[in-house]
């Protein structure tokens, strides 16, 4: 828990940040993460040169992430308590993406329900890196469900977890690190060594949130099946954190995910996830509800932890 913030304040500020996200969604113009992405591209262009790519990658990560995080922490420390509280909530709002997940995935389900396969392919291509140009309804539904389950951790629960640990600066640290992993964490010729630090740091920051996310999916879905899939299938997945999240989520929903997917014109055979029926368009909605219910569960847990302070009259900054 962030020093200086009691559980009641954390509960209030978390609720405020979530409410802002659900009410306003992502900023349409001048979004801070867009500017951060451009900065990261410039840093990468300047430093991604041999020799010493791993060391340069560490330096690049530090140059991109540490200045904004330290600046946020300094501003919060220097401002009156009420403004510091607003800064905490504002940073959570800018870093979390619960509404964004809904806005990017539910239209895919709607297009599939209407039989608009080309529209569904186009919408799906915006959220996944796989080739969707000739994807079937089942493949599009699978891509949508997998994206929701994985980003339930990356865009929502990881941010909430680090907000509880270190307030707004913690949420910012996690989201910027996760963004760099998405930009640099590829195992290809360009990023294999330079992106090593971004990938490993993101793995470390995600380790605990990913397992809490997987547990949340299990609690709110088919619990025994979700836990069994997590135990048996997650180790085979290439990512140490996406594996537990997606295996537990697939098991909780009773869906068969993973398997073949097309990347850069080549079919990649991925490990199986979950068990049950192949996903359909309506399962995207089910996956969104699982993510939203998990966010509500976390909010309820934090509120319950704040209750003793409230009952004891210990609400303070």
Rg, rounded, reads 20 Å
* DSSP summary, beta strand count: 2
* CA distance, first residue to last residue: 13 Å
Topology as H/E string? HHHHHHHHHHEEH
Kindly state the percentage of residues in helix. Answer: over 70%
| Amount of beta strand | 5-15%
> What's the average pLDDT?
91
Q: Name the shape in a single word.
A: globular
What number of structural domains do the residues give? 1
Short description, anyone?
The chain is mainly alpha-helical. The chain has helices spanning 7-24, 32-47, 53-78, 81-95, 98-113, 117-125, 137-184, 196-220, 223-233, 242-253, 281-311, and strands spanning 256-263, 266-274. The protein has one domain (7-311).
Which features characterize this protein?
mainly alpha, 317 residues
What do these coordinates show?
- This protein is mainly alpha-helical and 317 residues long.
- It has one domain (7-311).
- The protein is built from 11 helices and 2 strands; from the N terminus they run H-H-H-H-H-H-H-H-H-H-E-E-H.
- The protein has helices spanning 7-24, 32-47, 53-78, 81-95, 98-113, 117-125, 137-184, 196-220, 223-233, 242-253, 281-311; strands spanning 256-263, 266-274.
- It has a two-stranded antiparallel ribbon.
- Strand 1 (256-263) and strand 2 (266-274) form a beta hairpin.
- The longest helix has 48 residues, at 137-184.
